[in-house]
Design a protein that fits this description.
CATH architecture of the largest domain: Sandwich
Protein name: CUB domain-containing protein
Order of helices and strands: HHHEEEEEEEEEEEEEEEEEEEEEEEEEEE
Number of strands: 27
Signal peptide: 1-23
Organism: Daphnia galeata
Keywords: Signal
Strand order of the largest sheet: 1-3-9-5-7
Length: 411
């Protein structure tokens, strides 16, 4: 109650002070905003409360700098300004760790570019996490690196002491041409993706880029240039028919299993790649090609065989791919292989998920038989439920032909 009375007295004093200034404005060299801003500091000291508590007492935005663009953690909660600065709360005490959030919100069709200078962390536990940027795991921004939002919002989540320092500036920007670590995703029917390079030496950045196709479509991607200089740099493709693909082969066409494809990469400013993609409708066929097609759904009878040397995307190197068959509900799949020819083979118990082996093989999974690797020619294998998975590592000289039919699970 005593604290409430103190607050009330100060608020009445503030009202009186504003009235006095208005009456004497013609002879004063101070604006109302300047006087009120000065009074905020006195009010904070006398009440000995945090900036967030002051914001609960006074209307948000009432006591701000005349420019409207300089914000402080724990004093301000968010901003929709097109440009601005965010700095630590200068009334925080060095002995007490403080944790505050701040949100920058742009129009729905725009994004945010943020960069922090004068970065100084004096405590091992201090952090300023940038949540909502394309880079993964930004707990302490690298000085002068430009980070870009995934969408129209960035959240700064801090854990600081008074001795920590930074000055982050942001600008709202329109969408533009696509770059890894500057752009998050695309639904375009075709395009090019390259890394977003900056002038920060020795500090790699780790990012995703997502391609999304319409229903009943697939994405095909190939890289015409791939030059990763840093030993820790990499480029991986995910949600594709190839299994355990650690580095794209030049000019090889990689196809998404369904309607999404993701690039995952760690690069620095000495690395480079250039990849193109197109989106195409899924091929309506009963003749499927391993490493081109990722799945067959509701196909009652079909054939699966490898890509031939003359097929687009076949570069001559062996590749490790999967193919999944989905039968209608309450039906099982019966598969048999009429021919197989592998130029090198071995290790029938190969771990298909993680193997780096160069052996060529063919393996069936989700079958009643255990460890079908390789299948016995002309033997019929039956799925346990309504799906079956085929894994194979093949080169252009390798060959197999396998056919399936579906039947009732009770048959």
């Amino acid at each position: 109650m005593a604290r409430f009375n103190s607050v009330a007295i100060h608020l009445w004093s503030l009202i009186w002070l504003i009235s006095y200034v208005i009456a004497d404005l013609e002879n004063s060299h101070h604006t109302i905003r300047t006087v009120v801003a000065d009074y905020q500091e006195e009010l904070s000291k006398s009440l000995k409360v945090s900036g967030a508590e002051i914001d609960d007492i006074l209307e948000p935005g009432t006591l701000r700098s005349p420019t409207g663009f300089v914000y402080q953690l724990c004093r301000d909660k968010n901003s929709t300004a097109p440009i601005g600065n965010i700095q630590p709360y200068n009334n925080a005490t060095a002995e007490v760790e403080y944790q505050c959030d701040f949100s920058i919100i742009a129009p729905i069709d725009q994004r945010i570019e943020i960069s922090c200078s004068a970065v100084n962390w004096t405590n091992f536990a201090s952090s300023l996490r940038l949540d909502g940027v394309i880079d993964i795991g930004v707990w302490r921004p690298i000085a002068n690196r430009v980070y870009i939002s995934v969408s129209n919002q960035i959240n700064l989540i801090s854990r600081l002491r008074k001795t920590d320092g930074f000055d982050c500036k942001w600008t709202v920007i329109p969408s533009t041409s696509l770059k890894l670590c500057r752009d998050w995703s695309s639904t375009a029917t075709n395009g090019v993706i390259q890394p977003f390079l900056d002038n920060i030496n020795g500090e790699s950045r780790y990012c995703y880029f997502n391609l999304i196709a319409p229903l009943d479509h697939q994405i095909q991607l190939s890289c015409s240039a791939l030059n990763l200089i840093n030993p820790s740099s990499f480029l991986r493709l995910e949600y594709i028919v190839d299994v355990n693909m650690k580095k794209p082969a030049l000019n090889r066409i990689y196809t998404s299993t369904d309607r999404a494809l993701r690039l995952e990469s760690r690069v620095d400013n000495s690395d480079w790649f250039h990849c193109n993609w197109t989106i195409r409708p899924k091929i309506k066929t009963t003749e499927f090609k391993l490493c081109r097609d990722g799945e067959a759904r509701q196909i009652l009878n079909g054939t699966i065989r490898p890509l031939m040397a003359t097929d687009a995307g076949s570069t001559g190197e062996s590749r490790f791919c999967s193919f999944k068959i989905y039968a209608p509900e309450n039906q099982s799949i019966r598969m048999s292989c009429s021919s197989m020819n592998f130029t090198s083979s071995g290790n029938d118990n190969i771990n298909v998920q993680y193997s780096n082996s160069t052996y060529k093989f063919l393996r069936l999974e989700d079958t009643v038989d255990v460890n079908v690797s390789p299948p016995v020619l002309n033997r019929v294998y039956t799925s346990i439920q309504s799906q079956m998975t085929l894994y194979s590592r093949v080169g252009v000289a390798d060959w197999f032909v396998c056919k399936w039919t579906t039947t009732s699970l009770t048959a």
